[in-house]
Automatic annotation (TrEMBL):
PROSITE patterns: ZF_SWIM (PS50966). Signal peptide: none annotated. Keywords: Metal-binding, Zinc, Zinc-finger. InterPro entries: MULE_transposase_dom (IPR018289), Znf_SWIM (IPR007527). It comes from the Eukaryota. The keyword Cell division does not apply. Residues 312-359 form the SWIM-type domain. This is SWIM-type domain-containing protein. One of its GO terms (molecular function) is zinc ion binding. It comes from Solanum lycopersicum (Tomato).
């Protein structure tokens, strides 16, 4: 039919070629979730809701009454979000199902430092209307105060596409990767960025200019104080998601079991380690103990006190690198320039060196033990 029309009207008059028509038809088909598949999925959700009173799902239809966006989560996902929702990953990378819809899972990290699902959605497109509907559905309001982060891995991939003439030169790539992953201070980032721009004469590169403007959304040094389904039908993917959720919760149950009893404490009669052994899960305790032992290798090379505030400059091993730890005696609060507590959830070796070895604390202050 299309070929006949083009032959009769002429390509110059039609304004499109046969391949354009083919692409349009295929895209339209992908956007149309079959009625049977949509109804099967909704029936499945209704069944799950009958077994779990807190199971929730919502969907949106287009002007023709066809399913275009939908979201679901069960009661355990809701509980996990309430406990661990201080940090959340929202990833719209995947788009390989039968209808070419965007798979958008909400993922968090539980108290065993393992991934957990908060819910999942499928979206027809990435328009603002679709995202507003989804976020309103998920939280009943769009995130007004959320700190949005850009994925460093995707930035690295985009650099390969946008600045290949620079990226594939080893000297530039080393500098670029340092900016992505290895900067410890904001001032260090600024110096390395300026050096990269000057050395490689790329001040006029618009992609790099935009990347620099967005630096607080992707470079970790600016955000330390913030914390497979090919050709599947929609119903098949939902069941695949459920199976993966079960597997993740089985892992969580195993970690809960491992956390029973007392862990091995490397230093006997150590008050702080005994304290955290009672309140942390086994995996987090292991990481905390590592930081505590690292604290034994640190030393303060300068101490300044002004009123209730004491500032310690901590030497990091044999290198000349330092971190600044500030302790306020009024509120018994401690802050380190490495911001490990703010970004990871447990105190760093520099803060522990001050609390335990300098100030003789025998337990961790309650404010530094997260409820999660």
């Amino acid at each position: 039919m299309v070929r006949y029309f083009l032959n009769e009207a002429g390509i110059e008059n039609a304004g499109f070629i046969e391949q354009d028509a083919h692409n349009f038809i295929q895209a339209h088909k992908r956007n149309m979730i079959s009625g049977g598949d949509a109804q099967t999925m909704i029936n499945h959700f209704m069944h799950l809701q009958s077994e779990d009173s807190n199971f929730f799902y919502s969907f949106q239809v287009d002007e023709d009454g066809r399913l275009c966006n939908f979201f679901w989560r069960d009661s355990i996902s809701k509980l996990h979000y309430e406990c661990f929702g201080d940090v959340m990953i929202f990833d719209t990378t995947y788009r390989t199902n039968r209808y070419d819809m965007i798979c958008a899972p909400f993922i968090g990290v539980n108290n065993h430092w393992k991934s957990t699902f908060f819910g999942c959605a499928f979206l027809r497109n990435e328009t603002s209307d679709s995202f507003v509907w989804l976020f309103q559905t998920f939280l009943k309001e769009v995130f007004p105060g959320t700190c949005h982060r850009l994925c460093e891995w995707h930035i690295d991939r985009n650099a390969q596409k946008n600045i290949p003439q620079l990226y594939f030169k080893s000297g530039f790539r080393y500098c670029f990767n340092t900016l992505l992953w290895r900067c410890n201070l904001e001032s260090e980032f600024e110096l390395i960025w300026k050096k990269m721009i000057d050395d490689w004469d790329c001040a006029s590169n618009t992609w790099l200019q935009k990347l620099y403007d967005l630096r607080k959304k992707w470079c970790p040094v600016f955000s330390r104080s913030t914390f497979p389904m090919q050709d599947m039908s929609i119903t098949e993917f939902v069941k695949h998601y459920e199976q993966r959720t079960i597997e993740m919760r089985d892992i969580e149950a195993i970690e809960d079991y491992k956390s029973r009893g007392d862990p091995k404490i490397f230093i006997e009669d150590c008050g702080i380690l005994k304290h955290v052994a009672r309140v942390y899960t086994r995996r987090i305790y292991t990481r905390f103990q590592h930081e505590f032992l690292q604290g034994t290798t640190k030393r303060a090379i300068n101490v300044e006190t002004e009123g209730s505030l004491t500032k310690y400059i901590i030497l990091k091993g044999e290198s000349e690198n330092t971190e600044i730890v500030q302790f306020n005696a009024l509120g018994n609060s401690i802050i380190c320039s490495c911001h490990m507590f703010e970004s990871m959830g447990w105190l760093c070796c520099h803060a522990l060196k001050v609390l335990f070895f300098d100030l003789n604390f025998t337990s961790i202050l309650e404010k530094y033990i997260l409820k999660r």
